[in-house]
Amino acid sequence: MDRRVLLLSLVVAGLSLASPALAQLAPPPGPVQATDRTRINQQSIVAFPYFIGQPGSYVLTSNLTGVGGAAVIAVGSNNVTIDLNGFTVSGGRHGIEVLPGLRNVTITNGTVSSNSEQGIEARFAEQVRLDGVRLNSNGVRGAYLGDGATVLRSTAESNTSSGFRLGNGAVVTDSSARNNTGGLGLLCGDRSVVTGFTATGNGQHGIASGLSSTVENCVANTNGATGAWDGVFADFGSTIRGCAADNNTRWGIVVNSRGNLLDSSTKENGKGGITVGYGTTVQRCTAHDNGFAPRPAGTASRARPTDRTRVDRIVPTEVVLSDEVEAVSAARSESLRGVYIGDGISTGDGCTIVACDAQGNADAGIAVAHSSTVIGCTVRFNGGGGIETLGWTTIRDCTAIQGYWHGIDAGESSTVENCTLTNNQGSGLTATSNTAIRRCTVNNNGLSGIEVTGTRNRVEENQAASNLQSGFSVTGLQNLIVRNSASGNPINYNVFPGNNFGNVQFLFGGPFFSNEPWANFEY
Predict the structure, then answer these.
(1) Alpha carbon separation from 228 to 223, 340, 379, 398, 452 (Å, rounded)
(2) pLDDT tens for residues 380-436?
(3) What count of Cα atoms within 13 Å lies in the side-chain half-sphere of residue 356?
(4) Alpha carbon distance, N-terminus to C-terminus of the chain
(5) Exposed site from 26, 331, 424, 438, fewest CB < 10 Å?
(6) Quick check: helix, strand or coil at residue 168?
(7) Which residues contact 208 (CB under 8 A, 6 or more apart)?
(8) Rounded to 5 degrees, what are φ and ψ at 385?
(9) Mapping DSSP to helix (H, G, I), strand (E, B) and coil, where does residue 19 land?
(10) Structure confidence by residue, pLDDT tens digits, 478-497
(11) Per-residue pLDDT tens digits for 280-333
């Protein structure tokens, strides 16, 4: 063996035998402990606020109780992380204050409570992040954060005003606001994303977001005790998806114009279930048992304005971050969608309502303004009309059952096709002028099956049976009534002179033959 190899082998063997010396060089068992975090505790603080003037990581090792006139902790640097480490910050003017113009501050894992103003004051800072923070019983808001804020797994409860107030571009995930009795549960600015948020028992809106925001898989219950407030409110161009709003004082869900409302539910809200501004799409939503708040004195249950004025957008009363009253929509006009107390779903002009279900509401099941589309919807047991429109609307493949007024009130210049209207206390379907009514089934209604009062309507291929007054009631002029069938009505065809009317063929059982392609049938 080469002498150099032999010598190296002996050296290695000798080191291996020196196990006590090598053991001192090995790392200790368990995780490596951080050594670069600055510790903060009550005993080490000489005066409040405790000031953080350098970037880095800070950790509490005790509760901190401040004095009323100052913040408990003041952050004066970018790029700061504060780990509350399960402890509580309380007793100051603000629990934690991030000074104006700063950014990238993270606060995690603890409680900020019982401060005279904000739990966390960072309204003029950017990119402040809360993760696992509890904000309780503060004198004004739980947290007031600027643009680009992130709130994860955090709660705001029993603060005197609002729970969370955030600037533009906020991201809120898996958090909640409860019993903030003087304000909103959550208020976000424009282009925000809210997911998995629960708002319960707050004095104003449960959840309110600015322009072009997204609100998904959220719950808003029993909000609005201080006045006219909604469960969920989203401003112009926003999307609400997969949300539930129950027992709120005003409307369950409000979407301003040109938005989307998808796969959401409302129940037992005081003034109505869902209301949306012009150009909004509502799909696969439910509105049950809404609108039973007390009506204004002298307001009849079915009193309606003659028109629903279009409003371009709901203008918030607050458009900048300030100390003004936190009311996103208190001043918005009721004429946004011509909202009437008690509707299940109520819309402005140019809206699309698809595959929705409205049952047991105090007034109309679905009420839309002009130039809208209603497809594949079901309305039942509503206190007013089943589906009501102001006109210029397409209604297709819908069902209106057991309503306390007309099944469908189509307005003028509309199209109604393939609908089933049964057991309504009024007529199954009513129309004024320039409307096409095709292939509808209208049975067992309290007045007429189809009632036409105006001119130039086309009534074709419909079935009317067992209605209490007449199958078809046409009291206007210049209407076309062809290819319909009627049976079991006291008067099957009550058609006034001056209309174009296919000859009625009477069928008495057995096979029949007809050479009249436009004939109406009675059997």
Answers:
(1) 10, 14, 26, 32, 39
(2) 999 999 999 999 999 999 999 999 999 999 999 999 999 999 999 999 999 999 999
(3) 31
(4) 118
(5) 26
(6) coil
(7) 184, 186, 187, 188, 232, 233, 234, 328, 329
(8) -70, 160
(9) helix
(10) 999 999 999 999 999 999 99
(11) 999 999 999 999 875 444 434 433 333 333 233 333 333 233 333 333 333 332
SS3 state at 474: strand
Q: Is the peptide bond before 31 cis (omega within 30 degrees of 0)?
A: no
- State how far the Cα of 354 lies from the Cα of 73, in Å rounded to an integer: 52
Q: Which two tokens stand for residue 205?
A: 């809106």
Measure Cα distances from 195 to 120, 176, 217, 255, 259 in Å. 21, 10, 6, 16, 17
Rg (Cα) of the chain, in Å, rounded?
Answer: 33
Instruction: Please tell me whether the peptide bond between 49 and the residue prior to it is cis, using omega within 30 degrees of 0.
Output: yes
Q: What is the pTM of this model?
A: 0.86
Q: Which structure tokens are listed for 134?
A: 């509890």
- Which tokens sit at 407? 């099944």
Cα 488 to chain centroid distance, Å, stands at: 45
Q: What pLDDT band is residue 509 in, cutting at 50, 70 and 90? A: confident
For residue 5, what is the enclosing H or E element?
helix 3-17
Of 303, 369, 376, residue with least CA distance to 342: 303
Q: CA-to-CA distance for 101 and 325, rounded, in angstroms?
A: 24
Q: Is residue 4 predicted with pLDDT exceeding 70?
A: no
3-class SS at 43?
Answer: helix
Lowest-pLDDT choice from 67-81, 435-449, 466-480, 503-517: 503-517
Residue 349, φ and ψ in degrees, nearest 5: -70, 155
